[in-house]
Write a structure and sequence with these properties.
Ammonium transporter fold; 68% helix; globular
């Protein structure tokens, strides 16, 4: 194999950055959770590193990327990565060849973090057994089909739908699955639980923001000018969104909130994800402002409607993913990423983006709700009132995050 060492090194780095996002998410959610449920939420995130890796190398990669051209799902040709040699090249003949194994690992990191995003919605209400079933079934029937349809040469790719790094595939599906989960399991008994550690939230945000450069820039799957555009667009959108959220919340509540600043940054990161390599820099600024404002309003709407999405997965990731996908249809410029949106004279692309993200959100919501009903027939989904009052750290896992008796 002719190996481009620069591209190979870049993809190894990006894969490592995306892997780091999963522990970062655990810290982010762990800091926001109540003191009795820190480990309960963090273990749900970390366990995906193990379960999803096993699932991915056995059937996941094959279902996403083998066969099924123009269809909904792939086939089993590459089960257990059968037929893929460690020295096979990805992008052969491009001048940017790197081992296919790196592409497999890179996509695996996306699969690991996507279902973990959902966990913040139902913090301290879900049994661990039911979550493990959820983790497996949701990936097979929601995540894998959308990966294949958009990134694996499936029906949406053939139709012309674009998603640079996961607005539909990751954030819209996870966010609306989170909303279905919240509606199914109902409210927490103690909805006033404050964050146990805002500094931990800040550490998690920093790791997520850092890792997101690999998430978005790496999705070009090569090293070129689009890679650098996606990198800068990512940072710019996050920054504009963070400040927009801060200003809106400050004006409404009369105090600048640190958690609001951090949440706004994550909203900006989620919203720019589908568009990062398709829009010019000025559009990333507008997308960031829109993300900060719209996601903030979505969280306020959630509160008004009484949905107990504890850590605002729907408002930040679900709405962010939908918004970013739609704004890609508005701001895509053919001279930048090869695709024309509304401002570049192609209304049909905008319509495709709207239809596809709406369908993805609806499917993820409906399937997740029905799936939870079925899982509940096998093992209880919601914890008992006694376990919830005691906290999942002690009742389910027999551990405490902090030994308060030690110095």
């Amino acid at each position: 194999m002719d190996l481009n060492t620069g591209s190979t090194t870049f993809m190894i780095l990006c894969t490592s950055l995306v892997m780091l996002m999963t522990p970062g998410l655990a810290f982010f959610y762990g800091g926001l959770a109540s003191k009795r449920n820190i480990l309960g939420i963090m273990v749900q995130t970390f366990v995906s590193l193990g379960i999803t890796t096993i699932l991915w190398v056995t059937i996941g990669y094959s279902l996403c990327f083998s066969g099924g051209e123009g269809g909904i799902i792939g086939n089993f040709d590459w089960v257990f990565l059968n037929g893929i040699n460690f020295n096979d090249a990805f992008n052969p003949g491009s001048g940017q060849e790197y081992p296919t194994y790196i592409f497999i690992a890179y996509q695996m990191m996306f699969a690991i973090i996507t279902p973990a995003l959902i966990t913040g919605a139902f913090v301290n209400r879900i049994t661990f057994k039911s979550y493990l079933l959820f983790l497996v079934v949701w990936q097979i029937f929601v995540y894998y089909p959308f990966v294949h349809m958009i990134w694996g040469g499936g029906i949406l790719a053939d139709w012309g739908v674009k998603d640079f790094a996961g607005g539909i595939v990751v954030h819209a599906t996870a966010g609306f699955a989170a909303l279905a989960s919240v509606i199914y399991v109902g409210k927490r008994r103690d909805t006033a639980s404050p964050p146990n550690s805002i500094p931990l939230v800040a550490i998690g945000t920093g790791l997520l923001w850092f890792g997101w450069y690999g998430f978005n820039a790496g999705s070009e799957l090569a090293v070129d000018e689009i890679t650098t555009l996606a990198f800068l667009n990512t940072d710019v959108a996050a920054s504009f969104a963070a400040i927009t959220w801060l200003v809106i919340e400050w004006s409404r509540e009369k105090k600048p909130k640190f958690v609001g600043l951090l949440t706004g940054a994550v909203a900006g990161l989620a919203t720019i994800t589908p568009a990062a390599g398709f829009v010019p820099l000025w559009a990333a600024m507008l997308i960031g402002i829109a993300a900060g404002a719209v996601c903030y309003l979505a969280v306020q709407l959630k509160n008004k409607l009484g949905w107990d999405d504890a850590l605002d997965v729907w408002g930040v990731h679900g709405i962010g993913g939908v918004l970013g996908t739609i704004l890609l249809g508005v701001f895509a410029v053919e001279a930048v990423g090869g695709t024309a949106g509304l401002i570049d004279g192609d209304s049909s692309f905008f319509v495709k983006q709207v239809i596809s993200v709406a369908a993805a959100a609806a499917y993820a919501f409906i399937f997740t709700y029905i799936m939870l009903m079925i899982i509940n027939l096998i093992t209880p989904v919601k914890v008992s009132d006694t376990d919830e009052d005691a906290g999942l750290d002690a009742s389910l896992h027999g551990e405490k995050a902090y030994d308060e008796g030690s110095l």
